[in-house]
TrEMBL record:
SMART domains: PKS_ER
PROSITE patterns reported in the protein's UniProt record: ADH_ZINC (PS00059)
Class of this enzyme: oxidoreductase
Reaction equations catalysed: a primary alcohol + NADP(+) = an aldehyde + NADPH + H(+)
Keyword Disulfide bond: no
Alphabetical UniProt keywords: Metal-binding, Oxidoreductase, Zinc
EC number(s) stated in the UniProt entry for this protein: 1.1.1.2
Molecular function in Gene Ontology: alcohol dehydrogenase (NADP+) activity; zinc ion binding
Family per similarity comment: Belongs to the zinc-containing alcohol dehydrogenase family.
Stated name of the protein: alcohol dehydrogenase (NADP(+))
UniProt-listed InterPro entries: ADH-like_C, ADH-like_N, ADH_Zn_CS, CAD-like, ER, GroES-like_sf, NAD(P)-bd_dom_sf
Pfam families in the record: ADH_N, ADH_zinc_N
Cofactor: Zn(2+)
Taxonomic source organism: Streptomyces genisteinicus
Length: 350
């Protein structure tokens, strides 16, 4: 690849709900502060499916999903100071922000009030659509690029750029650690990383899942306890137990029942994003001074902190590597919960 290259191979959804197909997309020339990345692996996130199928609102098509990107720097702009060719790097859910608001100044670019720019299905400041990681290369400003430590294989690192940081951020913010009882709702692409990270932080970890089908996996990943929420007695048995519950599921839950599992001053944090509205009886939070909250990915400093933490503790995602021609099959398997626990595309097959 050279600075003058303008098109690269990719897989895109040509229209809402249409199967993804091989195509080519434009990539901008490497600018003053840009890095060009030879993408090696791209994770498949449930949000890729939501957006490719227009589940969260009007999409921009053709759409190239993918915001769990791991690769190697091949070229840097003349003003780049943090990276050089050959570096192992990652790109997550954002490729730009206003950079001037209070949140951006605090390293919370995910909450940019001036308008952050998603890695795909967004319009960049140049007015052009952004295209994600289901492609061979990407050009990104160095500020929105993070370093992947040597302690993590690139294929296992890719899902950390969304799934990893999405769980790390609330676990750190609500101070999961020794002496804290943490529950993770759902043991999927997000949840399995929540279990690993919460365990590494020193918390007592419980998985709340619909069934006990994945119990052995949950315990192996670091959970201390595993309960099936299809058993009505669980909500009575565990009432008032947890300091923090993180829900990773993308379907509406009976929130009042889950809030009953919290201790006084406990927090129930949503990182899964159902397409449908949810209902709540406010007495469920008034009693016990409980918090119902949400959390979205993490800023760039925290994403780097998460990668360093995962490398230190030997944490990578549990993955199934696939070729690009299996993306549509993988989408159906994700919806059927038939993956343990993250599909990762070998982008050399694009």
């Amino acid at each position: 690849m050279t600075t003058n290259a303008t098109t690269v191979p990719a897989y895109a959804a040509p229209a809402a709900g249409a199967p993804l197909e091989r195509t080519t997309i434009p990539r901008r020339p490497v600018g003053e502060h840009d890095v060009m990345i030879d993408i090696k692996f791209a994770g498949i996130c449930h949000s890729d499916i939501h957006q490719a199928r227009d589940g969260w609102g009007t999409g921009i098509y053709p759409m190239v999903p993918g915001h769990e990107i791991a690769g190697i720097v091949t070229e840097v702009g003349p003003g780049v100071t943090r990276f050089e060719a050959g570096d192992r790097v990652g790109v997550g859910c954002l490729v730009d922000s206003c950079r001037t608001c209070d949140n951006c100044a605090a390293g919370l670019e995910q909450y940019c009030t001036g308008g952050s720019v998603g890695t795909y299905n967004a319009l960049g400041k140049d007015g052009e659509p952004t295209y994600g990681g289901y492609s061979s290369h990407i050009v990104v400003d160095e500020r929105f690029t993070v370093r992947i430590p040597e302690g993590i294989a690139l294929d296992e690192a890719a899902p950390l750029l969304c799934a990893g940081i999405t769980l790390y951020s609330p676990l750190r913010h609500w101070k999961a650690g020794p002496g804290k009882k943490v529950a993770v709702v759902g043991l999927g692409g997000l949840g399995h990383m929540g279990v690993k990270i919460a365990h590494a932080l020193g918390a007592e970890v419980t998985v709340l899942s619909q069934s006990l089908r994945k119990e052995a996996d949950g315990l192996k990943l670091g959970a201390d306890h595993y309960y099936a929420t299809s058993d009505e007695s669980v909500f009575e048995e565990l009432a008032g137990t947890f300091d923090l519950i993180v829900s990773t599921v993308s379907a509406p839950l009976p929130l009042d029942r889950y809030l009953g599992l919290l201790r006084t001053d406990g927090a129930f944090v949503n990182v899964g994003a159902p397409e449908e509205p949810v209902s709540l009886n406010l007495f469920s939070v008034i009693g016990g001074r409980k918090t119902l909250a949400g959390s979205g990915i993490g800023g760039l400093p925290e994403t780097q902190e998460m990668l360093d933490f995962c490398a230190e503790h030997g944490l990578g995602a549990e993955i199934e590597v696939i070729s690009a021609d299996r993306i549509n099959e993988a989408y159906e398997r994700v919806l059927a919960s038939d993956v343990r626990y993250r599909f990762v595309i070998d982008t050399s097959t694009i």
